[in-house]
Amino acid sequence: MPRKIDEKKTRKALRRLERAKRAAEQAGTPDASLSEWEGEFLGSLEERLETYGSAFNDPGKGDTEEALSARQALKLREIEKKAAGKARKPMSQGKGFKRKTPGPAPRSRDIHEDVEPAPPAAPRLVDTPSDASAEPAPRPAGGFTPRVIEGGKPRL
Length: 156
Fold this sequence. Notes:
Helix content is 33%, strand content 0%. It has 156 residues and is mainly α.
């Protein structure tokens, strides 16, 4: 089922296309002149608007009652700005996500500020046993002894 597009919106889009073309031609500066792609884009939009009343078919790309999709309207707006001499400037490279101003000071104190650094430890000399048959050090007596704490969960 074809979409119903209001003829007023189609005419309005066609007028915007014509104004953008005319403004680019009258500007006379090389920056404001349309590139080959932009001229082809405007021509294809005009052709589709005159033929179908709308320049797009996929309802996911814009409002179904509009003559231009969201992206087409955005590109047309960029072309209009370029023709007016207010072209979008490309982003400069290399800044990334750095802060523009230095950040605020931390609101808490440094937990290491009052600790004095420990003096460097003296190198340890390893004593080698004179006898190869020396026994290893004995284990501590007792070891681990688990304890039962009273008052836990009652057994059923």
